[in-house]
């Protein structure tokens, strides 16, 4: 029901008829009853309300404000929730490419879709760990040894990647060599001629873990100016999880 202050004519919406109650206008502090009659100290109405004070509720400023604002607050809360969901959906759509390559998202995707491909971007060569040296073999030949680590960027175990070595030459004809990560080799094995490569490392790399590698490069182009290393993902066999 709608109640109007008899003094300043402020209007209030009350959910139910409030009988035997003194209403207080929050604008002019005028006291009036639920029928819009002003309550004056000392009159019969005041005395009646005084006798009913212990049995009848008193509607004050807070009650009048909340009674009319409850539904409004519910609507505002609903619209704010819809607006927040819209902003989140828009942000996810705009940045989908970034989210789709995030380690946690990619890990969840590969767990759910066990036949989903592993991407090269799921790996990262830790360039601060890379160092190289020339090694003289027993027969007098020289080979280039490159050591380093590669990191699994996902939250699930992955099979060790292969390492692509790109030789950037002065002539502009860059050469590429792809080598798997093998089991650790001793210095005697590295110096032996002919070189017999150890077995390929097939032990899964832990989630967000790293794996060391040693590359033995026998035919390095003489005109090489720089060497680049990239990790190439090795796909899982079948649908079996690691």
Can you describe this structure?
The protein has helices spanning 44-51, 61-94, 96-100, 103-112, 187-191; strands spanning 2-4, 11-13, 23-24, 31-32, 123-136, 142-152, 162-169, 175-180, 210-217, 224-232. By secondary structure, the chain is an alpha+beta fold. The chain has 2 domains: 2-85, no CATH class; 112-232, Coagulation Factor XIII, Chain A, domain 1, CATH 2.70.50. Strands 5-6-9 form a 3-stranded antiparallel β-sheet, with no helix packed on it. The longest helix has 34 residues, at 61-94. The chain is rod-shaped, with a radius of gyration of 39 Å.
Strand neighbour order, sheet with most strands: 5-6-9
Structural class: alpha+beta
Please bin the fraction of helical residues.
25-40%
Radius of gyration, in Å, reads 39 Å
Give the count of structural domains.
2
- From N to C, what is the helix and strand string? EEEEHHHHEEEEHEE
End-to-end Cα distance: 68 Å
Chart the SSEs and their pairings.
Layout: E1 2-4, E2 11-13, E3 23-24, E4 31-32, H1 44-51, H2 61-94, H3 96-100, H4 103-112, E5 123-136, E6 142-152, E7 162-169, E8 175-180, H5 187-191, E9 210-217, E10 224-232
Antiparallel strand pairs: 1-2, 3-4, 5-6, 6-9, 7-8, 7-10
């Amino acid at each position: 029901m709608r109640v109007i202050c008899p003094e300043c004519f402020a209007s209030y919406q009350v959910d139910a008829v409030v009988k035997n109650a003194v209403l207080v206008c929050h604008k002019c502090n005028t006291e009036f009853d639920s029928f819009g009659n002003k309550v004056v100290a000392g009159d019969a109405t005041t005395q009646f309300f005084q006798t009913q004070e212990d049995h009848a509720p008193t509607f004050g400023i807070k009650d009048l404000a909340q009674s009319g604002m409850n539904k409004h607050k519910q609507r505002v809360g609903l619209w704010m929730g819809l607006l927040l969901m819209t902003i989140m959906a828009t942000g996810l759509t705009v940045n989908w490419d970034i989210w789709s390559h995030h380690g946690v998202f990619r890990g969840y995707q590969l767990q759910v879709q066990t036949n989903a491909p592993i991407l090269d971007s799921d790996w990262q060569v830790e360039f601060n760990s890379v160092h190289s040296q020339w090694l003289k073999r027993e027969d007098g030949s020289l080979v280039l040894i490159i050591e380093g680590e590669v990191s699994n960027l996902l939250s699930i175990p992955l099979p060790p990647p292969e390492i692509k070595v790109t030789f950037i030459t002065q002539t502009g004809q860059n050469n590429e060599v792809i080598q798997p990560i093998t089991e650790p080799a001793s210095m005697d094995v590295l110096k032996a001629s002919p070189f017999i490569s150890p077995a390929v490392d097939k032990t899964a790399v832990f989630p967000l873990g790293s794996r060391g590698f040693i590359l033995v490069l026998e035919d390095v182009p003489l005109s090489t100016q720089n060497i680049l290393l990239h990790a190439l993902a090795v796909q899982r066999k079948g649908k079996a999880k690691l």
